[in-house]
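Q: How would the structure tokens look for this protein?
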Amino acid sequence: MKLTRVADMLQAMRMHDTDMRLIRVADMLQTMQMRDTDGQRIPFSITFVTCDLKKDEGGNKITLKKAVLVGACSSKSTAKNPQHYANYTRNIKVLGGDRLIKMHPILVTKFNGWEICQ
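A: Here is the predicted structure in token form.
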């Protein structure tokens, strides 16, 4: 079968696994930025693969059951701008924790139980 459109490909994937739920990276990023009525970030579960080209290491699968997005994709800081938009990275942390974890959205494999599709 020749697949010519993304929709055809997704339909073919669903034929093999009727329980598969998919979410686009863009929708995942919007969901990560959501806040509750008190203005607090809404926790999410996430699984991603690590990658650090500068240190030449990565490939570890990390799963966080309750994480929140830290900051936003554009920083107003002049001291050190992490350039999340240019580097396509985001900082997250475990809910209640203080250690920041930098991750690449395109290396996320699961978000709130949903499989990621590009």
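The longest helix spans residues 6-16.

The longest strand covers residues 57-70.

Upvote if useful.
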